[in-house]
Amino acid sequence: MPRIRWRARRIASQIKHCVSMRVSYYKLVYSTFCYNSFMSWNLVVDTLTEPMFWLVDRVAKYLGPIMVVLVVMLITSVVVIFYTCLLPHLYNNRSLLTTVTMVIAGHWLLVNIVFHYFMAAFTDPGMPLQEIPEVVSICKKCIAPKPPRTHHCSICDRCILKMDHHCPWLNNCVGHFNHRYFFLFLFYLWMGTIYVSTNGYQLFKEHFYGMKNSPTYVFATTQFFYGYAPATKHRRLQHLVSVTYEDYCKLKPEFDCVDMCWVNGTYGRYESETIGQVYDHPEGSWYHHAVLYEFLICAAVAFALGALMLWHGRLVTRGETSIEIHINKKERKRLKKRGLVFKNPYSFGVYRNWQIFLGFNSKRSFISHVIFPSAHRPVDGNGLKWKMSTYHQPSHNI
Predict the structure, then answer these.
(1) Is 167 a catalytic residue?
(2) 172: helix, coil or strand?
(3) Sign of CA dihedral 173, 177, 179, 180
(4) pLDDT > 70 in the chain, percent
(5) H or E stretch including 279?
(6) pTM: predicted TM-score of the whole model, two decimal places
(7) Torsion (CA) 56, 58, 59, 60 in degrees, nearest 10
């Protein structure tokens, strides 16, 4: 009996060994036909997700013009509502000097927004030339040499100098020659949304909390009139001003001497000899929705643009692009395993990085190149060859 058990164990080990040899053999045959020294899990994932990226690229390519039209329509709608709704409100509730100052500031922001968006959308970000002074790799899709900091855009189907990303809102790549325009467009558009939201908050609050659920009391600044009616049925005289219920209660005793009557559907008090031509009240249904739309769209865009602007500002501070930050992160981990410290060769310090990016070297050039629209070219070269910072390793005496 012990002899039979020993042979059974031996047979099981032989079967296990035979199966293991067969599996190793098939693995060797498979590797012989399919071996690739560049094979990695990253390559496998890239290959599997290639159809998805192809679909996204094609959709983004055809949606680009639609996104540009949408941006133009949104900015135009905000500007039109500001002129027709918010500006008269500012004029009636603030001093003339304050109103003129706000109008000048608003036009300065508008000019910068339009200029930088136009330049970011229609300026060629740059592509490698035939003669490249410095080559770091070969583009696998263009089959052409690539200078430093150049990457291939699958949507534009070409290599872009110092590529940051492809922006569907611009229908253009953000690269070496339009990166500054893109960032300043974000900055001034963010300031514009803050400007509109701040100036329109009081009017928005009145409409959001009171216009739909409670009556509005109105009176004329040049005629002796005030009235009471639902928001959608207001009629007014020239220079009609809306007031809150508390202000109406304070002003009511001053108008008790006049009679009450109907004026084109509005029940109010007026003096017949001072009555003027009656117009539709602007604070009707469309006015109400326009005020709500103006504030909500600007507030939402302000938060989104603020986060995006902080992200790109961080990249500029570190002397990187949206693509390089991932490359440098991998390189930093690789060198850390070897006990080395990675230093970005294109970073020259916080202040100098911003100087290079914005293209100024003095207070005067900062005003002309940043505060006001400027079409100057990048100061850090043509995008084919880059200056690199030098780091001095401290010497240790042995």
Answers:
(1) yes
(2) strand
(3) negative
(4) 74
(5) strand 279-280
(6) 0.72
(7) 80
